[in-house]
Amino acid sequence: MSKFELVYFPFNGLALASKLMLSLGGANRKLSIPDWPTENPINPYGKHPELIETKQDGYELILNERRDIEEYLAGKLGFLPKNRKQLYQCSDYVNEIFQYGEFFGRLDVDIKTGYDLEAEKKLLEKGVNTKEEIIAYKKELEKLQFFRYFLADTTRFLCSQEKHLSQSISGYYIGDTATYADIAICSIYSEIKSHGLSYIFDIAKYPHVKKLIEILEPNSAVGAVIKTQTFALN
């Protein structure tokens, strides 16, 4: 049986989906914190998360790309459909979720911690005179307008996921067990909540999305990862 080591910082971030798969899949795993930035020069790609799989014969497989890690674990731990058509459907759902997550990742940190959209109106009413004030004004306005675009994209995204999930009897995207797609949306929802922005990801308006989250979140393997930011104990 393989042993997995996931190297990442002491928060969920980009490693959350991988941590959830390892926990839900009952893998023999441990979480390590990198000695950053000391080890950066010896890391093949200079970034994390990093997955190290040690097989029974001692062979090590090392992956450093987030999506590669997630896709590998999904296949290894049984979170990909075996049916070819369903496999492509799952991949399509994951890509859509990932693109939305990338959009969220581009939000300014200040906005993620709670930005009042009324500030945009106030900013427009504010007078600017010096070159420095104009530059600062443009930067603030761009951040606020980007957040507005993100809100609109969130509505589009949730409507799309609601449509996908409305075709499911079990509540999962595909079949009657969790797949990579289910874990992916649970991850992005958790990440958005951690920034205090659950109000923009208003699942109450989307009953099928809400149903899926309510299926996954009470799972002890999911809850332990999200709440403690470490792996669930075996």
From TrEMBL:
Keywords tagged on the record: Transferase
InterPro entries per the UniProt record, alphabetical: Glutathione-S-Trfase_C-like, Glutathione-S-Trfase_C_sf, GST_C, Thioredoxin-like_sf
GO molecular function ontology, one term from the record: transferase activity
Domain GST C-terminal: start-end pairs: 80-234
Keyword Cell cycle: no
Residues that span the membrane, as ranges: none
UniProt-listed PROSITE patterns: GST_CTER
UniProt cross-references to Pfam families, sorted A to Z: GST_C_3
Name of the protein in question: Glutathione S-transferase 4
Organism lineage: Eukaryota, Fungi, Fungi incertae sedis, Zoopagomycota, Kickxellomycotina
